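Reading a protein record of the kind used here takes little practice once its layout is understood. Each number in the token line that follows is a code from a learned vocabulary of backbone shapes. One such record is shown here in full, so that the layout can be seen directly:
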Amino acid sequence: MQRLAVFTRPDGPIAGYHRQRDLPALSGTSQLSPYLHLGCVAPAAALRAAQQAATNPLADAGAAIWISELAWRDFYYQIMYHFPHVLRRAFRPQYDALAWENNEDLFAAWCAGRTGYPIVDAAMRQLRNEAWMHNRCRMIVASFLCKNLLIDWRWGEHYFMQQLVDGDRAANNGGWQWAAGTGTDAQPYFRIFNPTSQGEKFDPQGDYVRRYVPELRSVASRYIHQPWAMPPTEQQRVGVWIGKEYPLPIVDHGERRRAALELYRAVR
């Protein structure tokens, strides 16, 4: 309750939530999800606190966005209740026929944070080290697993439930099906996150990456999200050899994007 009170003060983090919630290097989210999941604070109490904050012009924009996130959480509970098949299968039945490749080596690299894409690896290492992951990064790594590695979203859903301190079956399932394009109001199958541009947009200076991927701490910001682009002289200067201290990308995003589109179009 104290954490909720601090977050929802009109001059507290909720005031900047709409601007900072997608920046993983900042502490711009409430981080209340474990407490909501475990029943330590009720969603109705969180809603009332946010509505009170919204009466102040300083916080109304951020509070409105945070309330919408509470609503999404409730929405996924409604979906799980009324459509229980989502716990085992795609909400949209045609996507049960997707011919996932399910390469176990690629999945192991994803779990370990050794994909060669820094924003993906930072997020997966945060999950392993803290049992929590920033929400923007959850979307990035989920899209990467399904639409770059062509691995069944249920593998990722199961792994998250094993790791997350806020592992909520309804919200976790809803988020994974959204990312995979198989769920309700899902991200379209043809919208495929580019992990490099996502990193450049939401972690422009690479602060989040450097926090969780220590091999790259000395890499300049211009290369932090595509370290494979560093010339050999730059790799030598910073003491990071790509392919040795840090892996080369395990897949080519452009090639896998085309493969993913073919995979999805085959079942539409």
